[in-house]
């Protein structure tokens, strides 16, 4: 750093004369020598201080101490060369130094300045020059001085400045507010974060009392009092640097907000300085408060609600239950297992492997949600039906370590659902029997035909045998006709028995087209008696689907029966029955008639229970049909045809079980 010239004590001629005499005899004769000057010269030569003398007009050296050779690496002869000093000045300092020296020679008797010189090997040294001016007739004639090497100090200062700059940059970039407080409690420094936190403009906080920002900070007061030798309040804990403590801060305009602060005392040359970190925690406290309130609401809801909630630690398997889990299963408070393995041990043996595997795969491995239904054992060894919905609790971007499970007792609903299914099956069976009852006459006629044929063929065979010489080939033909008619009658009876059965529903892979053809055969006699022309409309090579054969037959039978009733009394009654495949793999069963169609007002409620146009009808056939189709994952609907008549059709999904 440049240093302006300052006045120094006068340099006596005797100080500079003796060294000059060694080199310049003329100068030596003009300067008085003495033992004291000799001793002082030897003292200077023993130090790193270089004494010199120069012509004030030419600025060339007329004397240089022997230490100069060590300073810059040049010989003394080189120092005496013209313009040596000027040529060795650092280029960046030359203009400044020359301008200052010219002004000083005119205006001052002594001055000091610092500059850089370049050594013999290109090294740069900082020199402190102390100069005295000797005048003759008021004009500068001789200048004398000392050159002192201050390179080490300058480098230390540069390092300190760089360090301060880095420190300042770090302080400005710190995420928290930083405030330096002097021993008297006044603010010495704040970073921009502190200004933003408290809402003040740049520079307006420096010099103010820290107590205006954080009033009554006990630990800071204890530090400052102790530094001034005052009695400290022993009730205030000692300062532990790095530990944030809750405080109330005051911003611009009196705005108060919760904060945390820690104190870091530093002893400096100027005395105690306390660096204080202040952090606004209002947002965090709001989140913590909301979390506590949410958890409390969660606990209350779990305690009052019907659901049973579990929080499971994935690593340890520990389960924290919320709600009445013990009471729900007949246990004393805290008696039901509190681990995932203990919970699994209470599952029904038929459900355990499936549910545990689902939990392992979905929750533990994939960290995804899960929904399952199972039976769980109570203390009296009976079983309750439960459902569980589980999902991992997300924690930022990390893998979850816990998951939440919501369990619900659905025993009553399961029993009711089972009973409803039984009732539905019973009602469907009644409707099926009722539909077959309406076909009784036609079915009797259908059976009479093969029975009459068998009787006729049997009588013919007896006559052949009574003749005494029956023709074997004719007798064989008659017997074959009897067998064929018997099989025909047996097939009719088997189809009727299948439709009349009240077995538990069972889904299997079936040929839907074949099932529809079987129903058509059952109703064939009734269709012939009523003069109905049947037109088949089947796609070839349709794949099998998964369905309950008897239930699907019942739906088709209901649709054919309704179509025959709609065409009652028509001379040209026409019925189209078939199965078509769609591009998406679904199959469509359609029954179309040539009747008068369905009144538009009845279309929206056609499949509702007890909806019928017949005075003697129950109105359950189409309702049961819709229930069966929807249970298979399909849809059923009706529409009027443009050319007259109506079409009722239902769709079934490709070969997979309905949900």
> Architecture of the largest domain, according to CATH?
2-Layer Sandwich
Number of domains: 4
Q: Give the mean pLDDT.
A: 78
* Chain oligomer state: single chain
Count of beta strands = 22
- Unreliable stretches, pLDDT < 50, 5 or more residues? 1-33
Distance between the termini: 87 Å
At the fold tier of CATH, the topology name of the largest domain is Heat Shock Protein 90
Number of helices: 21
Output the CATH class name of the largest domain.
Alpha Beta
Overall SS class: alpha+beta
Largest sheet: 5 strands, antiparallel
By CATH, the superfamily of the largest domain comes out as Histidine kinase-like ATPase, C-terminal domain
Strand order of the largest sheet: 2-1-5-4-3
Rg of Cα set = 56 Å
Estimate the strand proportion.
15-25%
In percent, how helical is the residue content?
40-55%
Give the overall shape, derived from the CA principal axes: elongated
Polypeptide structure, described:
There is one protein chain. The chain is α+β, with helices and mostly antiparallel strands. The protein folds into four domains: 144 residues, Beta-Lactamase, CATH 3.30.450.20; 107 residues, PAS domain (Beta-Lactamase), CATH 3.30.450.20; 110 residues, Beta-Lactamase; 230 residues, 2-Layer Sandwich (Heat Shock Protein 90), CATH 3.30.565.10. The protein is 42% helix and 24% strand. The chain has a five-stranded antiparallel sheet with strand order 2-1-5-4-3. A five-stranded antiparallel sheet has the order 7-6-10-9-8, with helices on both faces. It has a five-stranded antiparallel sheet with strand order 12-11-15-14-13, sandwiched between helices. Strand 4 and strand 5 form a beta hairpin.
């Amino acid at each position: 750093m440049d240093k302006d010239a300052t006045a120094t004590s006068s340099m006596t001629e005797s100080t500079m004369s003796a060294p000059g005499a060694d080199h310049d005899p003329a100068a030596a004769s003009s300067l008085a020598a003495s033992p004291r000057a000799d001793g002082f010269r030897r003292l200077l030569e023993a130090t790193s201080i270089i004494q010199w003398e120069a012509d004030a007009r030419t600025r060339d050296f007329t004397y240089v101490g022997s230490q100069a050779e060590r300073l810059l690496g040049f010989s003394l002869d080189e120092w005496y060369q013209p313009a040596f000093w000027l040529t060795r000045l650092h280029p960046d300092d030359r203009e400044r130094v020359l301008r200052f020296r010219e002004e000083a020679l005119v205006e001052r008797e002594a001055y000091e300045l610092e500059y850089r010189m370049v050594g013999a090997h290109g090294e740069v040294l900082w020199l402190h020059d102390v100069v005295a001016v000797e005048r003759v007739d008021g004009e500068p004639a001789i200048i004398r001085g000392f050159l002192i090497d201050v390179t080490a100090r300058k480098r230390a200062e540069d390092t300190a400045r760089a360090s301060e700059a880095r420190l300042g940059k770090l302080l400005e970039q710190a995420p928290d507010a930083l405030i330096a407080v002097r021993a008297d409690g006044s603010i010495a420094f704040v970073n921009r974060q502190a200004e933003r936190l408290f809402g003040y403009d740049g520079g307006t906080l420096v010099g103010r009392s820290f107590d205006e920002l954080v009033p009554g900070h006990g630990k800071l007061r204890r530090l400052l009092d102790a530094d001034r030798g005052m009695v400290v309040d022993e009730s205030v804990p000692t300062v532990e640097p790095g530990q944030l403590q809750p405080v109330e801060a005051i911003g611009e305009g009196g705005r108060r907000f919760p904060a945390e602060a820690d104190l870091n005392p530093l002893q400096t040359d100027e005395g105690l300085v306390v660096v204080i970190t202040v952090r606004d925690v209002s947002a965090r406290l709001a989140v913590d408060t909301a979390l506590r309130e949410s958890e409390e609401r969660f606990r209350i809801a779990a305690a009052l609600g019907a659901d049973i909630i579990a929080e499971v630690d994935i690593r340890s398997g520990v389960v924290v239950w919320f709600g009445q889990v013990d009471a729900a299963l007949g246990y004393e408070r805290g008696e039901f297992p509190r681990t995932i393995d203990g919970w699994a041990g209470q599952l029904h043996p038929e459900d355990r492997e499936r549910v545990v595997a689902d939990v392992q795969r979905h929750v533990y491995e994939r960290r995804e949600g899960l929904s399952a239904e199972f039976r769980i054992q109570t203390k009296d060894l009976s079983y309750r039906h439960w459902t569980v919905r589980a999902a991992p609790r997300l924690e930022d971007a990390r893998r979850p370590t816990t998951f939440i499970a919501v369990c619900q007792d659905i025993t009553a609903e399961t029993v009711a659902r089972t009973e409803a299914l039984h009732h539905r099956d019973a009602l469907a069976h009644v409707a099926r029997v009722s539909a077959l009852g309406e076909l009784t006459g036609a079915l009797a006629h259908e059976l009479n035909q093969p029975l009459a044929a068998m009787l006729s063929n049997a009588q013919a065979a007896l006559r052949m045998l009574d003749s005494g010489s029956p023709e074997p080939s004719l007798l064989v033909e008659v017997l074959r006709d009897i067998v064929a008619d018997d099989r025909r009658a047996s097939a009719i009876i088997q189809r009727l028995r299948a439709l009349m059965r009240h077995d538990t529903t069972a889904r299997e892979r079936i040929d839907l087209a074949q099932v529809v053809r079987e129903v058509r055969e059952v109703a064939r006699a009734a269709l012939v008696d009523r003069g109905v022309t049947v037109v088949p409309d089947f796609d070839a090579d349709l794949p099998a689907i998964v369905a309950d054969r008897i239930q699907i037959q019942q739906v088709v039978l209901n649709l054919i029966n309704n179509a025959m009733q709609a065409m009652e009394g028509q001379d040209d009654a026409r019925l189209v029955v078939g199965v078509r495949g769609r591009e998406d793999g679904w199959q469509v069963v359609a029954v179309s008639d040539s009747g008068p169609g369905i009144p538009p007002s009845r279309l929206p409620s056609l499949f509702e229970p007890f909806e019928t146009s017949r005075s003697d009808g129950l109105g359950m056939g189409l309702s049961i049909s819709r229930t069966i189709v929807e249970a298979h994952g399909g849809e059923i609907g009706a529409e009027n045809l443009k050319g007259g008549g109506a079409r009722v059709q239902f769709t079934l999904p490709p070969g997979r079980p309905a949900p």
